[in-house]
Amino acid sequence: MTPDGQPRHGRSHLSPDDYPSEADEERVLLEVRDLRTTFRTARGPLRAVDGVSLSLDRGKTLGVVGESGSGKTVLSRSIMGLLPLQGVERSGSVLFEGRELVGLPPKQLRSLWGARISMVFQDPMTSLNPVVRIGRQITEPLREHLDMDKAEAKATAIALLSQVGIPSPEERFSAYPFQLSGGMRQRVMMAVALACAPRLLLADEPTTGLDVTVQAQILDLLTSLQEERNMAMILVTHDLGVVATRTDDIAVMYAGHIVEQAPTKTLFSAMAMPYTEALLESIPRLADPSHTRLSAIEGRPPNLLSLPKGCPFSPRCRYAKDVCFEQRPPLVPAPEPEHLFACWFPLGGRRGPTPAASSEPAMDGDQSVIDGQRGASPAASAPAEQSAP
Amino acid sequence: MSDLDSPAAGAATGTDARAVTAVAKTRVEETAEPELETATALDEEAPAPKKKLGWFFWFCVAWVVIVILAAALADVLPLQDPTYIGISQNSGPSLAHWLGTDDLGRDIFSRLVHGAYVSVVVGFGSIAIGLAIGGTLGMISGFRRGLTDTIINAGSYVLLAFPALVALIAIVSFWGHQLWKITIVIGIFSAPLLFRVIRAATLPVATREFVLAARALGASDRRVLWREVFPNIAPAVVSFGLIGVATVIVLEGSLAFLGISVNPQIPSWGNMLNEGRSNLTTNPWITLWPALAMFLFLLALNLMGDRLRQHFDVTEVKL
Q: Is the pTM of the predicted complex or chain greater than 0.95?
């Protein structure tokens, strides 16, 4: 296990090379490689997404988990290309249905949005226009993308509303958002997002603003609609509990990087990253006696403008050792299939990657940090190779 | 007390429905934007206890509507010819001449009604032009930000830096005194002010999540601006537009008083003020009536605008 070999291994499961070539078009819907999104700020560039690679098959669900500020929302928007009009740079590659989305002209991108890729937003209270009737908000994409006439769009919209479980959809069609409850509004949002039968749905914390019982309903509804339509979904959330039963794969994000990625079962049975463990522990359990203190992750997510040297999680990690503060761990494969993690000292007593620090003079700190950061992204293996000797 | 009883509730909704249509009507008249109905219809269906605009607001609306109707129908109404020179000069109010006659023996009431036309056309016309230019640019500027914003902003500052009245006098005396020319020139000079207000109203709306959601559905910028942003800033546009109309009418009055607005033979409130100036000591009525008409019209417009602004401010918090 040498640092130069590891990133390649890490990438191998993500690249389509492993799949039979004729099945590529069929199976892989989305292929993200080394995606980077940088916001220009007054205090320097902010790397909200820093070298993320992932792939998603048709009809499958990927959970993206992380704290606030870990870059998960920006990741989902970067995949789609839905970024502010100014002050943002996006690089890397997003292949959707074999089409490169990075660098696609806005007009072509817009023809995909809503039609092939769609998004459900975090807060149903603010993501519906308060002064526009919900009927028009649903028919808008139908008329835009599918060229439906008014009556046809209305009939489809009413059918959609009843599909997402809204009682008396004919009446709701001409209601304003404030006349609906939070759960209803999120159902409407889903109807809007699903109107044109997209192949990929990005659900950005779709249940954050809702109470727990409604959360479960909304998630179940999402899952059933997804199965019905064989639609792939990226479910972004801070709650490992939410993704546990509803996803095929999970990617854990921290400070703009994927720090652990695995099939859902593997992740819960053999998690390697202390951050994942800490996230899991911070979910309250029903079995706990009352007044049990909820374990929280100490400290706060790092400021993306001044990331700590070394592993970004090191300042908060209870297992952190010297090397963690010095070098950023690369994303390497675990013994289990399709399981990647970025940690020098993974959980469960398994062996982590070998830090390059031993062969690196301590004085050359700056260079090693840069190499370490780059090394974390699977695609940028070249700088990691340099640091190897 | 009886207002709270159930039979009164039906009556109340009746009044409101009427009120809503009235607002929609006046608004369409004022800015010719049919989209505005959406914002008002919101109030119609609000389940929460409704905030009333109050009888005084409707009184103002009624007055403004009367003046607009008078301006539009002046030729049809059974009035004396406003340019007919009668025998009795400088007569006070009488049955034959309700508001008296001026120094040439022309009927003041008839001139007042006909004169409303100039004020109404200049007021609403130039604000409509200003909104078309300034409003569109303001929405684009507030939505796109960045370089576009900087450039349009700079342009607005350049135009604002002109002393408007002096520039108006220069342009109008050079170009001509026709009503439409005056309307266009004032409209262009009102554009930067309206631009600033509408840009400011657009800024917070443009960053709201539903705008992002609309973009995520593949809506083009134009669609987002028109369908998502505009209905949200419409209340601000209307209330500020009304106050703008009042300001512009005063401006036209000032031009007329200086004798450089529309042709002096055409009855207009400003021209009447100008004519009455020389007879102020002998017959103050000539000046008083157009001044009163203008004062009441402006007061009504300002109060309407102000009341609407208050009304929508609070509604926005609720949303």
A: no
